[in-house]
Amino acid sequence: MNKKVALACSICMSRNYTTTKNPKTDSNRLEVRKYCKHCSTHTLHRETK
């Protein structure tokens, strides 16, 4: 079963995106480079708790 997770910007810590992942197949935290509207640049977004 997929779990909904929030992605937060690693620079300004704002939670900009939500996505789903399967915790059985991927136990590590998700890290994706995405556009942050607060920083106005592409930054690394990490999965939050």
UniProtKB/TrEMBL annotation:
Q: Which cellular component appears as one GO term in the record?
A: ribosome
Q: According to the UniProt entry, where is the signal peptide? A: none
Q: Does the keyword Zinc apply?
A: no
Q: Would the keyword Ribosomal protein be found if you checked this record's keyword annotation?
A: yes
Alphabetical keyword list? Ribonucleoprotein, Ribosomal protein
InterPro entries the UniProt entry points to = Ribosomal_bL33, Ribosomal_bL33_CS, Ribosomal_bL33_sf, Ribosomal_zn-bd
The family database entries (PANTHER family) matched by this protein are listed as: 50S RIBOSOMAL PROTEIN L33, CHLOROPLASTIC (PTHR43168), LARGE RIBOSOMAL SUBUNIT PROTEIN BL33B (PTHR43168:SF5)
* Matching HAMAP family: Ribosomal_bL33
Q: Which family does it belong to?
A: Belongs to the bacterial ribosomal protein bL33 family.
This chain's protein is named Large ribosomal subunit protein bL33
